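Hi Q.,

Before the meeting this afternoon, I wanted you to have the flavin-adenine dinucleotide prediction in hand. No need to reply - just skim if you have a minute. The sequence and ligand are here:
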Amino acid sequence: MIGLLCTILAHNFVAALGLVNITAELGPRLSPEARIILPNNTAFDRATYRWSTFAEPRFTAVVEVATEEDVAETVKYANEQQFPFLAIGGSHGVTTGLANLHYGIEIWLHRLNWTIISEDGDTATIGGGILVGNLIEALWQKGKYAVTGSCECTSFLGPLLGAGHAVLQGKYGYAMDQLVSLHLVTADGELLDVSASEPDPDLFWALQGAGHNFGIVTSVTTKIYDVPDQGLWAHEDYIYGRDSVENLFETWNQFFPRQPPTVVIVGFILRNVSIDAVNPVLVLSILQENVSRVDSIYTEAFRSVNPISISSGLGTYRDISRWLRFDFNNPVYCTTRNVSALHFPVGLRRWNVTTQRMVYDAFATITAGNSPFNASEFLLEGFPVQGVKAVPEDSTAYPWRGDNLIAYPLLRYHTNMSLDHTAIEVGEGIRRKLLEGSGSEELHSYVNYALGDESPEQIYGYEEWRLEKLKELKKKYDPERRLSFYEPIPI
Ligand SMILES: Cc1cc2nc3c(=O)[nH]c(=O)nc-3n(C[C@H](O)[C@H](O)[C@H](O)COP(=O)(O)OP(=O)(O)OC[C@H]3O[C@@H](n4cnc5c(N)ncnc54)[C@H](O)[C@@H]3O)c2cc1C
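Predicted structure with the ligand bound:
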C-alpha cells in the first residue's frame, strides 16, 4: 500500500489521497471482468498510451470496463468523489483541452469491442470501444462493410461522434449518418437508449457531430452494407516534385465536378529524402471501388502533371488503410511513441492554387534539413461528397456539409514542450494562409481534427440557432460540465 501511495503521490498529492481507495470503493460495484489499473501496475503504461503526447490528459487510475453497467458505475463513482473522468477508445484524440484533465479516471473502453449483425443483415450492433480495423475485419468475415474512418487504430466511435469522414461517404454519407440508435451513459451515470424518436430527438441530433459532449457511448446500432463484387478496390499513386504544385492543384480542381461517389482522392505533402533531398514531395492516391484498374478518365489528367513516379495496385476494401498508411502497424499513424502531433484543419470548397504554393513553401521551410519538425506531413483529403450532401444540413449537429476538402498541416516532433510554441505559431500561420486563400472569413475546423484553440463557432458552426441549440442541450444533459475535455460546448 505504501509503495502504491508513493507511486500515485508522484502523480499528484490530492488525487493520491482520493484515488488510493478506488479499488476498495469502486471495485465491488463493477462486473467481475472489469479491472482497475493503478500506476504501479505494469499495464498502466499500455492503458494510458497516447498516439500524440501533446496536451495529454493525466490519469491516476484506469477502469478497464467490461460492460456498459461498469461505465455507468464508474461515472457515478467519479461524480460522487468529484474526480474528473474521460472515455478512451483509440487514444488518437489530440486537442489542447485534454491537458485540463488532471489526475482523473480513464474509462478504458477497448473491451467493448463486439459486433453483432442483425438477422436481416441490414444493421449491426457494435461495442463502443471497438477499433476501426477490428470492426472492418468482423464485418468483412460476413461479407459486409460499414462507413468508418480510414485509420485502423482509431476507435469507431471517436470519429463517428464528430461526423466520421470515410472513404464510403460518397455512397452513404458520414459514419454518423448511418446511426439507428445508441446506448449512452450520460454525464450523471444514467443509461439511455437514444434514437431519432426516443427519448429526445434533439439529443440524437446532438450526438451526430457534437457527440463527445453528451455522454459515453457503450454501443451503437448502425446501418451496414453488402460488400459489392468481392470488395475490389484499385489505386493509382503519384509522387510529384516541387515544380508541379500549381499544375497539380489546378488539375485536382478540374477533377471535382467529375468525381463519382466511388472515387477517393487523398494527398500528403511530406519529406522523402530518397526521392528529393531538398524539397518535400507531394504524394497523391486515387482509389476507386469495383474496378481492377482506376478508370483512365480520372487518372489521365494526373498522369500528365509530370509525376516523378506512378504506381498502381489492386486489392480489396480491407487493404485501403494500409495503402493510406493507416494500418495497425504503421509507425506514423498507429504505433508512434513520445511524439507530439498537432493538426491545424481547414474545410475548403476548392483549392486556391496560389495559396497551395504558399503553404507548400511554408511547409518546406519549417521541415527543412535537420528541423525537429522534418517528419511532419500535410494532409489533403478529397473524399467524395455526394452521400454527405444528400443529408440535410440541419438534420445533424455537424455544420460543414458544404465543404468538399479538408487540408491541414500535421506538425510532428519528438515530444519536447519547448517546441510546442513554434509548432503552434507555424501551424496557425499556415492555417491562416489557407483560410485567406479560401476567400472566406469563417474558419471551418472539423471537431475531430481541431487543435482546441478555435472558437465554438469555428468548430460547431456559425448559424446562431445551431450553437444555441447545442448550448441548451449541454445545459440539460451536462450542466456540471463533466464532459468538458474534448472540444466542450460552452454554456
Ligand atoms: C491517424 C489518424 C487518422 C484519423 N482518421 C480519421 C478518419 O478517417 N475519419 C475521421 O472522421 N477522423 C479521423 N481522425 C480523427 C479522429 O476522429 C479523432 O482523432 C478521434 O478523437 C479519435 O478517437 P479515438 O477514440 O481514437 O481517440 P480517444 O483519444 O480515445 O478519444 C477521443 C475523444 O473521443 C471520446 N470518445 C471516444 N470513444 C467514445 C465513446 N465510445 N463515447 C463517447 N466519447 C468517446 C473520448 O472521450 C475523447 O474525448 C483520425 C485521427 C488520426 C490521428
